[in-house]
Every structure is written in structure tokens, then in C-alpha cells.
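Task: sequence design from structure.
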């Protein structure tokens, strides 16, 4: 007997094919588009932005082709509070958040899943590129599109009610299938960057919400080398857009090493000073099997993978890397793997 499945349909090719596969497998599928913007634009700007009126129409057309019921759920208020306001607050606190990760955690697999279960659905299906078998999350075979990292914050219970139908497919295969199925989104560009900052200007977006807060840019010795209009406009590892007045003595580029929100100070230095081997984290979530074999950790979306080991003391997780990593930022997630399988995650608080 088939499951009652709620298919989250963004208006893109991945979620359309995911819904089609679930329906074809004999499940009772209902499509839902999440309206996340209080004032949606009519059209996307290339591959930027999402949740436009055009996206909701694309999702509805896909549902019609598949032959499933379709609804639009207004999640704009929840999205504004749990994702957008959280994003701004994290930057104001000197951290670098990942809003896609937060959206998966708070919207798609908290708010939506809770409502779906309350309405009698058994599971929520999405177009994420990740494998999920018996509640165990693993990487997609298409490593360039793998989204296991941004799903690594989900709990065992949430994964137990999730379905990722694209788990064994590459993006090219998904597009080919969409064309075969007559889905008009087959060639639609992928959305990227931060969906609620359609023009891609994160610094401008934050400046509008946090205002101008002039401060100093200093080197490792504390000498002032420049000024800024708000520490929230920077992230650890950043090289471009620093507008430093005094070049380094060796002529080499400088990078953001740390952000201190209380004093509103940004510290810069050479790339070598970014290297860290100890990553401290909080709020660990253990959602996978016991580690079987060597561990690796991913410290940012589509970032490098590092061999590691860890110790846990209450709510703190200390990860020791086998080799130095650079650009590790507080606020990002550290997702632990054994082989291709996710075993857990935690939020980075500091690195040294």
C-alpha cells in the first residue's frame, strides 16, 4: 500500500521530477508550493532568487502534467522570522550563517513536516540531491550537486519522515528525465546564492537592515589599516572588498581573520593565519549510524572534506582536523561523515 506523500515543489526541475517519481511509484501524492516571500517578484532574475510568482506557476504546471493535486502554502511569516531575521541576527553577532541549512531545518522539515503529519501525510518529499535509505543520509553520486551537508542538521525523526527521490541521480539525468516527462522546467536554471537576496548584494541587504556602523580594520598587531561601515559586511576568509588603506609589508593580499561585533572591529592578516586544526562546536545532532571507520568533516557548503576525530563534552563538540583548514567561520555547520554517510552535525562556535 502506498504512502500519503506531500511533495514540496519549488517550481524547479529537481522538485518536479522528485514529485513525478513518487507518484509513478504508486504513492498518493499532493504537491505544495511554499510561498516564502511576503512580496514576491513576478519573475526571477536569471538564476537568482526564488519563490516568485513565476515559480509558483511553474510548480502548478508541473503538478498538472504529473496529475496530482496542488496547493500553495503561505509560509512567508515563518520564513521571515526563522530564516531571514536569523540570518541578519547571526551576521550582527559576528557569525556567518547558512540560510539554506536553516530553511531546511526550520521550514521544510519543521513547519512543513509538522503540518503534513497533522494533516495525515506519512512523509515529505523534496528534490534535494542526497541519498536516504532506512533513515540514513548519504552523499549524492553527483558530488557537484550533493546537498547532504545542508541536510545534515535534520534529526533522526525528521529523516524518518523524509523522501529524497533523486538520491541516485545526477543533475544531467534529472534534466533528461524532465524533458522526457514533458515538464516545461527541464531547462530552467538552478537557483543559487541566497534566495531572499535576489540581486546577490549581501552587504547591501545587511546594511539596509542593520544600518551603518563605522569601525576599524586592524592587522594582527592591532595597527589600524582601514575602516568599514559595518562589521556585518564581512566574513572570515574574505579577501575581496576590504578597502584597506595600507598594503601589507610583504605586498601579499590580506584576508579577514576575525570579526568582533562588540568593538565592531575586523582583523585582517595573511592567508597562513587562517589555518586552523581545532574546531569547536555546539548543539550536536547525531542523526546517523555509529561511526564505522575513519571520520571526515565538511565545514561549509561545497567545501573541502577533512579527516578528523572528535571529543564531546556535554553540549560542546571539539573536532581535531588531520590537516589545517582555512576560512572556518562561526555560525556554519560542521557535518561529520563516515565514508559517504552522515553521522551528525554541530554549529561551529570558534576555530584555532
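Answer:
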Amino acid at each position: 500500500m502506498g504512502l500519503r506523500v506531500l511533495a514540496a515543489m519549488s517550481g524547479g526541475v529537481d522538485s518536479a521530477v522528485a514529485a513525478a517519481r513518487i507518484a509513478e511509484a504508486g504513492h498518493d501524492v499532493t504537491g505544495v508550493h511554499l510561498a516564502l516571500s511576503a512580496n514576491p517578484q513576478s519573475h526571477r532574475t536569471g538564476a537568482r532568487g526564488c519563490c516568485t510568482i513565476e515559480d509558483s506557476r511553474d510548480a502548478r504546471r508541473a503538478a498538472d502534467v504529473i496529475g496530482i493535486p496542488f496547493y500553495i502554502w503561505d509560509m512567508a511569516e515563518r520564513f521571515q522570522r526563522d530564516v531571514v531575521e536569523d540570518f541578519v541576527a547571526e551576521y550582527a553577532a559576528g557569525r556567518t550563517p547558512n540560510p539554506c541549512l536553516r530553511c531546511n531545518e526550520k521550514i521544510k522539515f519543521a513547519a512543513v513536516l509538522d503540518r503534513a503529519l497533522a494533516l495525515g501525510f506519512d512523509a515529505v518529499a523534496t528534490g534535494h540531491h542526497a541519498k536516504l535509505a532506512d533513515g540514513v543520509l548519504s552523499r549524492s553520486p553527483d558530488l557537484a550537486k550533493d546537498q547532504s551537508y545542508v541536510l545534515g542538521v535534520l534529526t533522526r525523526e525528521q529523516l524518518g519522515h523524509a523522501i529524497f527521490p533523486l538520491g541516485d541521480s545526477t543533475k544531467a539525468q534529472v534534466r533528461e528525465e524532465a524533458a522526457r516527462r514533458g515538464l516545461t522546467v527541464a531547462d530552467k536554471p538552478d537557483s543559487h546564492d541566497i534566495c531572499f537576496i535576489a540581486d546577490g548584494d549581501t552587504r547591501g541587504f545587511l546594511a539596509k537592515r542593520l544600518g551603518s556602523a563605522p569601525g576599524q580594520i586592524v592587522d594582527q598587531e592591532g595597527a589600524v589599516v582601514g575602516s568599514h561601515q559595518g562589521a556585518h559586511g564581512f566574513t572570515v576568509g574574505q579577501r575581496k572588498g576590504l578597502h584597506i588603506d595600507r598594503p601589507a609589508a610583504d605586498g601579499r593580499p590580506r584576508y579577514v581573520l576575525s570579526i568582533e561585533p562588540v568593538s565592531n572591529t575586523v582583523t585582517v592578516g595573511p592567508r597562513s593565519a587562517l589555518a586552523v586544526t581545532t574546531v569547536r562546536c555546539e548543539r550536536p545532532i547525531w542523526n546517523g549510524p555509529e561511526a564505522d571507520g575513519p571520520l571526515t568533516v565538511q565545514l561549509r557548503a561545497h567545501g573541502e572534506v577533512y579527516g578528523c576525530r572528535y571529543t564531546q563534552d556535554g553540549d560542546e563538540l571539539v573536532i581535531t582536523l588531520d590537516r589545517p583548514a582555512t576560512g572556518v567561520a562561526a555560525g556554519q555547520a560542521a557535518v561529520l561523515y563516515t565514508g559517504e554517510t552522515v553521522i551528525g552535525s554541530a554549529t561551529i562556535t570558534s576555530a584555532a
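The helical segments are 13-24, 53-66, 76-92, 99-118, 148-151, 156-160, 171-180, 202-210.
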